[in-house]
């Protein structure tokens, strides 16, 4: 839900300023593991950057970072070329 701040364009109150909360989830499609490469597709926005990260165990402190992908406004494929068949937990970061 969009939120408005003070000075949202009411007469005599200045320029409207719209803020939106961050996206906490996204639709992921076409997850696949083939020949040691894991891939999935995510919808993207132009001007945003997307990153696939993984952990082998959820209680590990750090995520392993994979390549960055620039958003195009179309679905983009994120790839883990090092998927060796062992269990991994993935997350996608966007900024």
Detailed description of the structure:
- The chain has one domain (23-94): Immunoglobulin-like (Sandwich).
- The protein is mainly β.
- Mean pLDDT is 82; it is low at 1-10.
- It has strands spanning 3-4, 18-19, 29-34, 37-42, 49-55, 64-70, 76-80, 89-94.
- A three-stranded antiparallel β-sheet has the order 3-4-7, with no helix packed on it. It has a three-stranded antiparallel β-sheet with strand order 6-5-8, with no helix packed on it.
What level of helicity do the residues show? Answer: under 10%
Q: Total strand count, please?
A: 8
- The N- and C-terminal alpha carbons lie at a distance of 19 Å
Q: From N to C, what is the helix and strand string? A: EEEEEEEE
List low-pLDDT spans: 1-10
Count structural domains: 1
Question: What strand order characterises the main sheet?
Answer: 3-4-7
Radius of gyration: 18 Å
Residue-averaged pLDDT? 82
Strand content: 35-45%
Relevant terms:
globular, 3-stranded antiparallel beta sheet, Immunoglobulin-like, 95 residues
Brief account:
The protein has 95 residues and is an all-beta fold.
Topology:
Elements lengths: L2 E2 L13 E2 L9 E6 L2 E6 L6 E7 L8 E7 L5 E5 L8 E6 L1
Antiparallel strand pairs: 1-2, 3-4, 4-7, 5-6, 5-8
């Amino acid at each position: 839900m969009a939120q408005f701040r003070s000075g949202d364009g009411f007469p005599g109150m200045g320029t409207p300023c719209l803020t939106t909360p961050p996206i906490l989830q996204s639709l992921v499609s076409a997850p696949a593991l083939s020949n040691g490469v894991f891939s999935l597709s995510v919808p993207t926005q132009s001007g945003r950057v997307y990153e696939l990260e993984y952990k082998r165990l959820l209680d590990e402190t750090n995520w392993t970072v994979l390549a960055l992908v620039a958003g195009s406004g179309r679905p983009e494929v994120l790839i883990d070329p090092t998927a060796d068949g062992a269990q991994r937990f993935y997350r996608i970061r966007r900024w």
